[in-house]
Amino acid sequence: MKSDISIKLSKLKEITTYHYKVILYLDGVGEATQTQMSKEFETTKQRVNKVCKELASMDIIQVKRTEGRNVFWTLNPKPEFQIIGQLKLEDI
Fold it and tell me: What predicted TM-score, i.e. pTM, was given to this entire model?
């Protein structure tokens, strides 16, 4: 992960421990399903699903591919850090 992206991530107040776990895990393995992550973190698939949806809405992770019902997530190489409810400068 690039250092400027890490600095921006560290300043986001909306990110919790599980958000960081998903980000670091995807940075290490490249891509993973929610089932793989829930087994690795020893938590429920529902929690990982919620975290992945939140990170996807922030444009930090994205869907790489789907195989049947399995959705493979990966880090967005160029995140824009759009937080839910955040205004862009063009909107003002």
Answer: 0.78
Distance of CA 19 to the CA centre of its chain: 6
Give the whole-angstrom CA distance, residue 78 versus residue 3.
13
Give the contacts of 43 (CB within 8 A, at least 6 positions apart): 18
Structure tokens at 51: 């975290």
CA distance linking residue 32 with residue 41, whole number of Å: 12
User: CA–CA separation, 39 vs 29, rounded Å?
Assistant: 14
Residue written as token pair 């850090």: 81
What gap in Å lies between CA 86 and CA 65, rounded to an integer? 28
2-55 tens-digit pLDDT: 667 777 777 778 788 899 999 999 999 999 999 999 999 999 999 999 999 999
